[in-house]
Structures are given as C-alpha cells and as structure tokens.
Amino acid sequence: MTPVRAVVVMGVAGCGKSTVAALVAARLGWELLEGDALHPAANVERMGAGIPLTDEDRAPWLASIASWMGERRPVVVACSALTRRYRDVLRADDVLFVHLTGSPDLLGDRLAAREHHFMKAGMLQSQLALLEPPAHDERHLTLDIDATPAELAERVAAALAERDRVAVG
User: Fold this and answer.
1) Which residues pair with 148 in a beta bridge?
2) Which end of the chain is more exposed for a tag (fewer CB within 10 A), N or C?
C-alpha cells in the first residue's frame, strides 16, 4: 500500500477540522492548507448569508484544493469533503481522509460559540443532510470529537505510524 503523504481532515462545520489539521501538520512537520482559504468570494458571501453551497459552487473550490495538493507533498488539508464525489476530486493513492464526527448538539453548540466565521450555525443541518461518511473502501480514519483536538491529532499521528491500521476503514 502506498504510504500516506496527504491527510485531509474532513467533516461538517464545527467538528474542529481546522484546529485538528493544524495540530497534525505541526506534529508531522507537513505543510498545511486551510481549505476555506481557497473558497471564491461568492461562496463566502453565500455561506455568510446562510445560503448552502451547491455542487456547482463547490466544484471550482475542490478543484483548487486538488491542484494545490497535486503540487505538494507531504500535506495536511482541512476540507469538509462531505460526499464521496467531493472526496473523489481530492483522492490519490497516498491520501488518508480523517473524518471528524460528533453529535449534532455538540456541533451546533460549537458553531453557536464561533465569532467572525462565515459559516453560520443554521447551515449545519444542510451539511449533515449532505454528509456521506467515508465508505469501507475509502482509505480513512473516523474519530469522535469528544476527544480534545490534541488527542485527535495524536491518534492521527499514531495511525500514520501504524500504517496498516488505516489502510482501509
């Protein structure tokens, strides 16, 4: 199996993607991309207005992330990657998807506590409805956000050190 050289920390808004991705990147010494930084201004405006993005809105954003990833290794990326078809755009033989998951109540509480972020708490339900957790045939690791971000980052690093444990599923 190809060694992991790219980690995509994924999940719905409020799951801690950005925080966990930054900790994993720092722990591994890998380059970090906050995927939201590549959203076109129109997407940020839509989300800021509480309007969920469509597949057409997401397509150029995902292509930008995939292009960025294709030019670099090793990398850690924070990106929602909510559906398999979105992950297919980012997928390569050396990519591991780290799916952060938690209860809707916890996610909602986290979003409600956010300040100065374009993603509004009211949009959580649309993301949860869209979410397709990674399937058994996708190279992934699913972690519950009941743990601290530091504990989650440690679990990712440990899984990478024990590569066979995260080969599939």
Assistant:
1) none
2) N
Gap between the Cα atoms of 96 and 40, Å rounded: 25
Instruction: Please check whether the domain covering 6-166 is classified as CATH 3.40.50.300.
Output: yes
**Measured between alpha carbons, how far is 88 from 65 in angstroms, rounded to an integer?**
12
Q: What pLDDT digit, counting tens, does each position of 25-70 carry? A: 999 999 999 999 999 999 989 888 888 889 999 999 999 999 999 9
Q: Are 82 and 62 in contact (CB under 8 A)?
A: no
End-to-end CA distance of the chain: 14
Q: What φ, ψ does residue 147 adopt, rounded to 5°?
A: -80, 160
pLDDT at 119: 53
Domain ranges in the chain are 6-166
| DSSP alpha helix (H) spans, the chain | 17-28, 41-48, 55-70, 84-90, 104-113, 124-130, 149-161
